[in-house]
Amino acid sequence: MKTLIVLRHAKAEHIAGLADRERPLTARGERNAREAGDLIRPLGPELVVSSPSVRTRRTAELLGLDAPIEFERDIYEAYPDELLALLRRTEAEVGTLVLVGHNPGAHELVVSLTGTDDDRFSPGSFAVIELAATWEDVAPGTGRLVRMHHP
């Protein structure tokens, strides 16, 4: 069984004139990212895949996980089918993966995999999903929501 943790980046600043991809985390966002790491760490993630935007990159780093972080530009503004395609490329030996992304794609991926629609998926929220499929076979409906966390 595989475990997927879908994490929406933590709370980011809105700064006039700053490109969306360059938005930094707020102080609360940094605190929430560290707290998420404390909750995710016991699950033993082996890989973190993150959008390369400033806020997702910083969220991934602040998790403090003992796992490599890979940055995938395709996560930025991705739809669930694009995120599924990305997950299908995950190496078979990875048991637990953290995906750090953006809404609405991150939330829609959780809904697609689990059929569970918690209408809250605020910044810093994450879902822990057990998959009844290999990475290459992951598809809508192949997941079971184990835990949902909102900061």
From TrEMBL:
Signal peptide span: none
SUPFAM superfamilies: Phosphoglycerate mutase-like
InterPro entries referenced in this protein's UniProt entry, alphabetically: His_Pase_superF_clade-1 (IPR013078), His_PPase_superfam (IPR029033)
Highest taxon, organism lineage: Bacteria
UniProt cross-references to Gene3D superfamilies, sorted A to Z: Phosphoglycerate mutase-like
Name the UniProt record assigns to this protein: Phosphoglycerate mutase
Organism expressing this protein natively: Planotetraspora thailandica
